[in-house]
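Look over this entry.
=====
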Amino acid sequence: MGFKCGIVGLPNVGKSTLFNALTKTAAAQAANYPFCTIEPNTGDVAVPDTRMTKIAAIAGSKEIIPTRLTFVDIAGLVRGASKGEGLGNQFLANIREVDAIVHVLRCFEDDDITHVEGKIDPVTDAETVETELMISDLESLERRVTALRKKGQTGDKEAKAQAALMDRILELLHDGKPARMLDTSPDELKAVRELNLLTTKPVLYICNVDEESAGTGNAFSTAVEDMAKKQGAGAVVISAAIEAEISQLDNEEQEEFLETLGLEEPGLDRMIRAGYDLLQLITYFTAGPKETRAWTVTNGSKAPQAAGVIHTDFERGFIRAQTIAYNDYVELGGESPAKEAGKARDEGKEYVVQDGDVMLFKFNT
């Protein structure tokens, strides 16, 4: 089960610098000119989770295998991208393929780095990109809805319902609001997702600040956080320049460097976790002498679905799952003490997996 976060933004806001730090590679060329990233670069990163170390120590695991997220560095969007300006069509197609959008915004002043719009205004930059995505969605829906309306008039109930849903989204887009702000029922949510619109994708704003503002943020990042709050979106303050330096250091050097800056952890750790939360993902664990491993499922997944992430046979032949809550596993000292204390539960097919569950699946082959 792979989940992709697309890193987007205007040119020269720090996307590729952030991506390089994220993947600890120089795969994405970071340069001071627009469109330096032509093809989307992709990198898998581990999701930081301190719980794994504690579980592994108790289980005596030889190896720790974290869960992972995929980040895609997508080239810079410019005003008019929906009409093909810059490399707009290609970029929009790349965004369509990701599950969530990580929108990097320039929240720093630097006369040596040009800004495509000629001024530093991250809220306006966010609106520029969002507008291009909304225009693309408008055009996509308008191409499809006419035929559905006609079909609905012939008595086709499904077509009529689809057209009505599209019309509601079109009204929202015409009002300058993204499709993700549509008030939907659980049944409608599936239909909306199937439309594969750009503005239905959840958004996390990354405020790329100067090094001095990494711990506290600045006026630019505060304005972005206020905007994100109104939208129900997330926002994280990061200095891409600092993250690039940190990525070149070993663990001990990283800790010392962060301490000198007054930071508790790399900003990228917060960004990765925020991206994980943005996708409404949770983690469950399997643990034993060989390895402690984290597995990703969407929030609300039932035990058979969680088993299927390990192997489809596990889901197909699912019998039950021995489940220990993370806190019980750690406080009691592992599987055997948890069993003795009655904290190792046998759960069936309707059990909804909780974040941090330590699980052992039983299934028919």
Q: What stands out?
A: Residues 302 and 352 are 4 Å apart (CA to CA). Residues 25-38 have pLDDT under 50 and may be disordered. DSSP finds 14 helices and twelve strands in the chain. The two ends are 22 Å apart (CA to CA).
